[in-house]
């Protein structure tokens, strides 16, 4: 099952709709350099599958877009990377956390958001790329 909400749909409509596989390893340099959400998804290997085994905790309303707290945990076996993307940012890929084998896949950080939008978390495992997302409202943008 592919994600069908928001930017995932836009990305699939513009050609990044191939489902990511283990063979399509992400190009993090290209993903961080991407100026659009679609470019970032393409650099990561294509559209991820939705997964309920990824938990994403962030506020529904952020008073200040410069300091949005986010916590991510993956219960997917063989998690290698957790990638955080923000669809409304000038550079959508906000962070990447890598995990060695046998490590708990957990990350907590603060991200910047230009304005209200969606935060997406992509998790790369041995089996492919998986994701979840949440919408967030930002009172004052933090990327300008």
Architecture overview:
The protein starts with 5 loop residues before the first helix and ends with a strand. A hairpin with a 6-residue loop joins strand 5 and strand 6. It has a single domain, classed as Sandwich (Immunoglobulin-like), CATH 2.60.40.2470. By secondary structure, the chain is mainly β. The chain contains three helices and nine strands, in the order αααβββββββββ. The protein is globular.
Which fold name fills CATH's third level, the topology? Immunoglobulin-like
**Proportion in helices:** 10-25%
Low-confidence stretches: 1-24
Number of distinct beta strands: 9
Class from secondary-structure proportions: mainly beta
Calculate the mean pLDDT score and round it.
84
* CATH first level: Mainly Beta
Percent range for β-strand residues: 35-45%
Q: Which CATH architecture?
A: Sandwich
Q: What is the C-alpha radius of gyration, as a whole number of Å?
A: 14 Å
The number of domains is 1
Helix run count = 3
- Report how far the terminal alpha carbons are from each other: 36 Å
Q: What is the 3D shape? A: globular
Q: Could you spell the SSE succession in H and E letters?
A: HHHEEEEEEEEE
Brief synopsis:
The chain is mainly beta and 144 residues long. 15% of the residues lie in helices and 40% in strands. It has one domain (6-140): SoxY domain (Immunoglobulin-like).
Describe the secondary-structure layout.
Elements: H1 6-13, H2 28-33, H3 37-43, E1 49-50, E2 54-57, E3 61-64, E4 68-74, E5 81-86, E6 93-98, E7 105-111, E8 117-125, E9 128-140
Parallel strand pairs: 1-9, 3-9
Antiparallel strand pairs: 2-4, 4-7, 5-6, 5-8, 8-9
């Amino acid at each position: 099952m592919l994600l069908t909400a928001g930017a995932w749909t836009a990305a699939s409509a513009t050609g990044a709709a191939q489902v990511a596989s283990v063979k399509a390893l992400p190009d993090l340099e290209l993903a961080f350099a991407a100026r659009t959400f679609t470019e970032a998804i393409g650099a990561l290997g294509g559209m991820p599958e939705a997964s309920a085994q990824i938990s994403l905790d962030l506020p529904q309303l952020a008073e200040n877009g410069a300091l949005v707290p986010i916590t991510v945990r993956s219960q997917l076996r063989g998690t290698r990377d957790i990638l955080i993307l923000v669809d409304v940012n000038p550079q959508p890929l906000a962070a990447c956390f890598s995990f060695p084998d046998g490590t708990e896949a957990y990350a907590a950080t603060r991200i910047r958001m230009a304005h209200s939008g969606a935060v997406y978390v992509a998790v790369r495992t041995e089996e492919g790329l998986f994701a979840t997302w949440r919408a967030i409202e930002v009172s004052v943008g933090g990327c300008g």
